[in-house]
Fold:
Amino acid sequence: MTIQFKDESFRGDFTYANSPSNIPRFPFPFPEDEYMYSTNIEPHHAARAGSPFENAFDVDEHYVAEMKDRALVLADDPGRCQALPHMETAGWDFLELVMVSKARDYPDLFKLTMDGDRWHWINKPLQIDDTFTFGDSSTLPCHPMEYIGRQVQGDHAILDQRDGNLWMDAGIITAQADWSLDFDIGMNFFEWHAPVPLAHELGVFQRALKFLLTLPQGQPSRRLNWTLTVNPRLDTSPENYPKWGPDRMTVTPENIGEKVHLRVELQTFWRLPRSNAILFPIRTYLMAMNEVVTQPKWGRRLHRVMRDLRPELVDYKGLSRYHPILVEWLSQFDDGAPTSPGIFPD
Amino acid sequence: MGPATMSESLIEESILSRPTYGTLKIVPGLAHYFLADASGAECVIRVVQELPRDMMEKVHILYVPTPGEAALITSLYALGAKRFEHFPTIEEAVAKLGDWLSDAKMGSQLYLAGTEGLVGQGVAKGEECGLDHTAVQCEHRGSLARRVQCVHCKTMIEDVTTQPVKCPSCDLLLLVRDHYSRRLAAFQGVCINAEDPSEEIEIKEVFK
Ligand code: HEM
Structure:
């Protein structure tokens, strides 16, 4: 399997798009025709060859372009990558997990050679060839979390576990759906989730935390989360809201198919071996409405989900300005036929 | 910070990142550190004057008066604490608290009383100095003015009483959210008309 990495942008002229062959492997987030928050956590087992669930850390055609966008964000705002002092061991755990997994799952792209603590890492797509001493940060150009975080798609938060809670004590966050690491760093599970409507009352977070506190090593889990983003922009941070907020005013019935993107986060949960921390990768997939509706099941279902979405969620996800136009536009793809269970296209 | 007792507090319960407040009560400890501003002074007086004389050796008080006010300084001084110091700004008093706590013994207790900004910064300093959160008590008094961080330019804005508030540094009009960071001791301010900058929004006094 060779991947053709695309040269594309997530800002300015927004040349990002999915190749036709990349569309069916999109992690469509709705297993049913309606959506509400739930503790939707399942084992992160390899599933379906070719799907984004096949490998531990999915690499796709957007890899190189995403890493370039991350470098731009970090150059502009170093506060997107922060770690409290006790999180260095967890950074090494993260680096190890990514290097070992990628070298195993994509041997034609990544190579890891270990000679005791002397590690030799080759990342062909990003043209990196480095030798360093595992555990000794002076042999890397930066914190181990930043070093590996610049080489893996998706944002990554690392949660320290103590006092029966999880604490967001480190992260490299450049492609977030409107939350600030700089503000949330040091918060616990309930505090950083505080702005989410309805879910606290439903007990979703209490159950999720209980599950995560006993997450065993070697048994990762995953869940999907979603929102909508106007234009294929990765950096929708609160810091830069004045830059991307106005995009929400530009949606019309004529351009909605290309402008509005379904933004899906494949979130996985990994217990780390030395630090006992939890690694939380938030891998974002973007797909224009026009691309989503090429799969008839997805077009039908998305119409039903959007039409019946709770007003609190419409508001929290920031969809209010264009939600009615979107539902109207999607209705042309819904013939009322039943849909098959599960997320995969027919 | 313990469960909220609403009786003497003016703050309604809201989202979970927001702090909750109680009523100061002396608990056993090797040393007792107090930090208050003018609205919290009477809480300090209330609990400290109940203490037996020989305990005053363990009491240390920091105070931030409102400018020109002297009567409360006199009353606090008259309590006879081992140390009593006052500072014109919260920032200076909190820095001094840091000095004191870094020399403090295990088993020290911290008591904070006054406006949300003072209490929040005291909590953050206590945490930074390694005090367990169970050793920190807070009583909210006085104005509901908030300390707000502009999420865009990261400026800290003190004593915010309006919704929205204009950031003095980047000039954006900020919605003051309930989302609160204990580490920063601040609420989050996010541009309120970013989507449509031409939108006019009335500024109202709400945190009084
Ligand atoms: C342990 C790692 C996790 C981290 C670091 C994390 C982080 C976050 C953050 C930063 C937000 C945005 C909150 C805001 O508005 O500021 C969020 C939203 C949310 N989280 Fe988590 N989360 C984690 C795990 C979970 C789990 C296990 C669940 C399970 C149900 C969950 C459910 C949600 C939901 C439902 C939302 C609202 C999303 C939306 O409507 O777009 N999270 N999370």
Q: What stands out?
A: The two ends of chain A are 24 Å apart (CA to CA).
